[in-house]
Specification:
Blueprint (H helix, E strand, L loop, with lengths): L1 E5 L10 H10 L4 E4 L8 H8 L5 E12 L2 E8 L6 H27 L6 H7 L10 H10 L6 H9 L14 H10 L3 E4 L11 H13 L4 E6 L4 H13 L3 E5 L24 H11 L11
Parallel strand pairs: 1-2, 2-3, 5-6, 6-7
Antiparallel strand pairs: 3-4, 4-5
């Protein structure tokens, strides 16, 4: 089996990139992709750790994009982490995220909730180079006893209906897809049914149809909380729109309790046969080739 959607301490996961690779190897996974949010800072360490491993390390990234007043997430798999255009896009997104973080801090302060940039950084295990996001705010709110748990932190302050919520800059999907392609990777729609599988099938199909027209390569048919019916439906759309299937756990370590590497919520099983289709699609975009083991 394989797992092509994981996060490390370089963004909002809790395992270091090399530890993540080692954990995948212990699980017997044929391949694992590191897809941190808006950064590829952990990829060099991740690839180095995989050099002597039986588990293939797949360089990747997760990019949030704007979508009709909301957002969607694209995974770039098999990307060249040194590609200047991709790094420039990710840098722009991270700068916008930092501006958003400052606004959230101000809104919290206006409500008598005092957090500092240093307190947020303390919740990140990646040091000064790590991406700080709302999960780190939630951990700080809990640590300083402003909230009892993550659910309260998002419901009261950080979620879309929260009193400190701030929207952030997100690139258009077309820009993200083209940038991923120019970095030699494949663009995959992540968690098409959303967290908890709440998005209606008709809406998912419509989104896939539009994204396929923008150059989307594939979609996560296998996801940590997808049910068998949703998997079958996505695989049908893969055929209908000439896409490739992917899948992963969305593993975040201790920041997402109950989600296991390679197994998701317990029943996830992403077949390694998908790897060759994904890598084959990536080879059409790769200039020059990203070195990967056979």
């Amino acid at each position: 089996m394989i797992d092509l959607h994981t996060h490390s301490s370089a963004s909002d996961g809790t395992l270091a990139p090399e530890t993540l690779l080692a954990a995948a190897a212990r699980r017997g996974l044929r391949a694992v992709a590191l897809t941190d949010h808006d950064t590829m800072a952990g990829v060099p360490e991740f690839l180095a750790a995989g050099a002597g491993s039986d588990t293939i390390p797949v360089p990747g990234v997760e990019v949030a994009c704007s979508w009709y007043g909301g957002s969607l997430h694209l995974l770039g798999l098999f990307v060249d982490h040194q590609n200047s255009e991709l790094q420039a896009l990710l840098g722009e997104i991270r700068e916008a995220r930092e501006r958003r973080n400052q606004k959230i801090l101000r809104r919290l302060a206006e409500q008598g909730v005092a957090l500092s940039p240093a307190s947020l950084r303390a919740e990140s295990q990646a040091g000064d180079g790590g991406v700080i996001g709302r999960p780190h705010f939630a951990r700080a709110l809990i640590r300083f006893r402003h909230c009892t748990d993550r659910n309260q932190a998002f419901a009261q302050y950080l979620g879309r209906q929260g009193s400190a919520y701030v929207r952030r800059f997100l690139p258009l999907p077309k820009i993200a897809v083209e940038t991923i392609h120019r970095a030699g990777g494949v663009a995959i729609l992540a968690h098409p049914f959303g967290g908890g599988g709440r998005v209606a099938p008709a809406a998912v199909r419509q989104k896939l149809q539009k994204l396929a027209g923008l150059g989307l390569d594939g979609v996560e048919a296998y996801y940590c909380d997808a049910n068998p019916g949703q998997e079958r439906q996505v695989l049908q759309w893969v055929e209908e729109f000439s896409l490739v299937a992917s899948g992963g756990s969305d593993f975040h370590g201790d920041n997402a309790p109950g989600i296991e590497l390679g197994r998701g919520a317990g029943r996830l099983a992403v077949p390694d046969a998908l790897l060759d289709d994904l890598r084959g699609r990536a080879e059409g975009w790769r200039k020059p080739a990203v070195p990967l083991r056979a």
